[in-house]
Design brief:
This protein is α/β, with parallel strands linked by helices. Helices cover 35% and strands 20% of the residues. Its EC number is 6.2.1.3.
């Protein structure tokens, strides 16, 4: 079998695209829950589901295939630029017609390599034209496009590739290739590995559609639904030009690309907006006293004016127009968003403080909400219809149910519509948990609607901390409040499930290695400035913890005490806390690809520290106590 597989064409060549995952040989595929096309879900790779058609609106539109969508885009935007890649310091671009042709070349290549119907093409690399072309090529060839995170270990890559029965795996470089070579002997369906990397040599047409097109920067992991929908599918449908950021985008180079491209729309996960905020505050602190006063005045005007706009009062006072000239335009230009009319955030919770910071600079950051299982967005905020802290209103053609609401109207958020997924591949039990008998997709998130139909997320069912006294406590609002009260804090995680009181794990803001993404020991510029204002001479995280720096520990306790004063009950007060030596990161495994906190990982990693909170014989007094 292995010899036969190798002679079939397993080898390495300079291809131009690919990506996917699939299930292991010998896996018993569960029977469809009912006759083909009559069920709301399926776990079969070749299964059918009932389309959730509606009598009117977007839900009544005729279904179309990826191929049909792409053909329509090519007919509309044929000579518009579609993809832009930085090659040797210059932007190499493909038009929509070139893009379409390359995808078909990839599809034919995959078939030649032995891609079978409903089998996977795994894609392992950073955002690029090759990634997009491999993804779409796999679909055009009748296979599955399966994104694999570049941070995955060989074993994690094996899980994905085996589960989707990958026939082909496309890798970006030698480093990613080595992961697949390490596990290829355990992938019985694998027939070829494609490594790309050479520049696409195409004649660029003489046209520039910049004024006619939306332009975006692709930098979020393409294995995640947010980037898939924004960068590939929505971009294709709307004729958007996509520029690819550098692989170290999330380690510091993103703003440089934004300044160069000047996108007209930008989606940032909360951590990206928070990092921008931190950098801007750090720069602001170094400005002259006069500049700081002008900035503070402009931010005050900006916040008040934009809050009034949210309430429908659209008039712009003279001082707002003056502040736009003096401050707002310069800020937008500095971060590359001077042409951006749509700034969005999603994939994880964002604090009200961060939203207000950007709103004060006349940069409204609007929230999206959805799941991978709902093909991305389910609700959206719009420039003329958004509220701070809300995820907006449900998209046309989609439906929301608040399941089993309590007295405050809070219940589990459930979705319905044609955007709901078919099911989890080969996972019938998990699919039944997600989709109920009436076809509603259960999100696991808690939320409510206000009187105007805006959706507000209040917590997550699985994240709820249930104390020994039986009180249900959503951790995120408390964590956000602590981070806002103590600017030196980078990450906070509340613990106390089944315990008598709440405690908190804290990390400090530090310098991150630009190459590896690993948090270091040196304090960040903002953290250093915080220490200096308090009279502390500490420059490292380890110095603060080893000496239990009095000024810093006192400031943290003061901040937490202030948060506790606003708690709705004693059960929601933070009684103990500890500073950890390392900040949470993607590198350390505590954060996911969209920088969302992976609570089970943190709980396991610091289980001894957490246990120590509750080993004292004396109960907490009400004032938070710190542990070294």
């Amino acid at each position: 079998k292995k010899e036969e597989k190798n002679t079939v064409g397993k080898g390495y060549f300079d291809g131009n695209r690919v990506n996917m995952r699939c299930p292991p040989r010998g896996t018993e595929i569960p029977a469809a829950p009912s006759s083909p096309g009559s069920s709301m879900w399926t776990t079969r790779r070749d299964g059918e589901v009932k389309l959730r058609m509606e009598e009117q609106g977007p839900g009544s539109e005729a279904p179309k295939t990826v191929h049909q969508l792409f053909q329509e885009s090519v007919s509309k935007y044929s000579n518009f630029y579609a993809l832009a890649s930085k090659k040797n310091g210059k932007w190499a671009k493909l038009t929509y017609k070139m893009y379409y042709d390359e995808c078909w070349k990839a599809a034919k290549s995959f078939l030649k390599l032995g891609l079978e119907r409903f089998h996977g093409v795994g894609i392992l690399g950073f955002n690029s034209a090759e990634w997009f072309i491999a993804d779409i090529g796999a679909i055009l060839a009748g296979g599955f496009a399966v994104g694999i995170y570049t941070t995955n270990s060989p074993e994690a890559c094996h899980y994905v590739a085996e589960n989707c029965s990958a026939n082909v795996i496309v890798v970006e470089n030698h480093k990613q290739l080595q992961k697949i070579l390490e596990i290829e002997h355990r992938l019985p369906h694998l027939k070829a590995i494609v490594q790309y990397g050479e520049e696409i040599k195409e004649q660029r047409p003489k046209l520039d559609a910049r004024e006619k097109q939306e332009e975006v920067v692709s930098y979020l992991p393409l294995s995640h639904i947010a980037a898939q929908m924004c960068d590939i599918w929505a971009a294709m449908a709307l004729g958007v030009q996509v520029y690819f950021a550098q692989p170290d985008a999330l380690k510091g180079s993103l703003v440089e690309t934004l300044r160069e491209v000047r996108p007209t729309a930008f989606l940032g996960v909360p951590r990206v907006w928070e990092k921008m905020e931190e950098k801007m505050k750090s720069v602001g602190m170094k400005a002259s006293a006069i500049r700081r006063k002008v900035a503070a005045w402009a931010k005050g005007v900006g916040l008040q004016t934009n809050l009034k706009k949210m309430d429908g009062r659209l008039d712009e006072p003279v001082n707002f127009r003056l502040a736009r000239q003096l401050v707002y335009r310069k800020v937008r230009k500095a971060i590359g968003l001077e042409r951006c009319t749509k700034c969005y955030t999603g994939a994880a919770p964002i604090t009200r403080e961060t939203l207000e910071f950007f709103l004060s600079l006349n940069i409204p950051v609007m929230e999206l909400y959805g799941m991978s299982e709902s093909s991305g967005p389910h609700t959206i905020s719009l420039p003329h219809a958004f509220k701070l802290g809300s995820c907006g209103k449900v998209l046309s053609g989609c439906h929301t149910l608040i399941h089993k609401p309590d007295m405050d109207g809070i219940g589990e958020i459930c979705f319905s519509g044609r955007h709901v997924f078919m099911g989890y591949l080969n996972m019938e039990d998990k699919t039944r948990e997600a989709i109920d008998e009436d076809g509603w997709l259960h999100s696991g998130d808690l939320g409510k609607h206000d009187k105007d139909g805006f959706l507000f997320i209040t917590g997550r069912i699985k994240e709820l901390i249930i104390t020994a006294g039986g009180e249900n406590i959503p951790p995120v609002p408390i964590e956000d409040a602590v981070k806002n009260a103590v600017p030196i804090i980078s990450n906070a995680m509340l613990v106390g499930d089944k315990a008598k009181f709440l405690s908190m794990l804290l990390t400090l803001k530090c310098v991150v290695d630009a190459d590896t993404g690993e948090p270091g020991d040196e304090l960040s510029p903002e953290a250093l400035a915080f220490c200096q204002r308090l009279g502390s001479k500490a420059t490292k995280v380890s110095e603060i913890i080893s000496s239990k720096d009095k000024a810093i520990y006192t400031a943290i306790q003061k901040g937490i005490s202030a948060v506790n004063e606003k708690a709705v009950s004693n059960a929601q007060k933070v009684q103990k806390w500890v500073l950890l030596e390392k900040d949470f990161s993607l590198f350390g495994g505590e954060l996911g690809p969209t920088m969302k906190l992976k609570r089970p990982v943190v709980a396991q990693k610091y289980r001894d520290r957490i246990a120590q909170f509750y080993t004292d014989t004396e109960p907490p007094s009400g004032e938070p106590s710190a542990r070294p």
